[in-house]
C-alpha cells in the first residue's frame, strides 16, 4: 500500500511548451552574454581572416553566426541537464 502512495506522489509531467522554454530561455541568455563578452575582445572580421579567409562575411553576419552557434551549444547543455534531472521514478518502475 505504501509503495502505491509513493508512486502517486510523483510530479505530473510539465507541458511541452514549458519544457522547451526551460531549455531555450536560459540558453538564449547565456549565449547573449557569452557573445557580448567574446566580441568585446575579438573582432569578427579578424576571426574570419584567420579561420576562413576566402569567405565573404560582414561583421554583423559574424556576430549573428556566433550568437546562433553559441545558442545551439548552450541549448544542448541545457537539454542534457534536463535529461539528467528527470525523475527516475517515472522510468524505473518494477515490472508487473
Describe what this molecule looks like in 3D.
70% of the residues lie in helices and 0% in strands. The protein is an all-alpha fold and 96 residues long. Helix 2 (16-41) crosses helix 4.
Separation, N- and C-terminal Cα atoms: 15 Å
Share of β-strand residues: under 5%
Which regions have little confidence, pLDDT < 50, spanning 5+ residues?
Answer: none
Estimate the global geometry from the Cα principal axes: elongated
Mean pLDDT across all amino acids: 84
- Structural class category: mainly alpha
Major sheet size, sense and barrel closure: none
Q: Counting H and I runs of at least 4 residues, what is the number of helices?
A: 4
Helix-strand topology string: HHHH
How helix-rich are the residues, as a percent range? 55-70%
Task: List its traits.
elongated, mainly alpha, 96 residues
Concise synopsis of the structure shown:
The chain has 96 residues and is mainly α.
SSE map:
Layout: H1 2-8, H2 16-41, H3 44-51, H4 59-84
Amino acid at each position: 500500500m505504501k509503495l502505491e502512495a509513493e508512486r502517486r506522489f510523483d510530479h505530473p509531467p510539465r507541458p511541452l511548451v514549458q519544457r522547451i522554454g526551460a531549455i531555450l530561455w536560459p540558453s538564449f541568455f547565456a549565449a547573449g552574454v557569452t557573445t557580448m563578452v567574446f566580441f568585446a575582445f575579438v573582432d569578427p572580421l579578424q576571426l574570419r581572416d584567420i579561420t576562413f579567409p576566402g569567405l565573404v562575411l560582414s561583421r554583423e553576419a559574424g556576430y549573428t553566426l556566433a550568437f546562433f552557434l553559441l545558442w545551439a551549444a548552450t541549448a544542448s547543455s541545457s537539454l542534457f541537464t534536463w535529461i539528467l534531472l528527470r525523475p527516475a521514478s517515472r522510468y524505473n518502475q518494477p515490472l508487473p
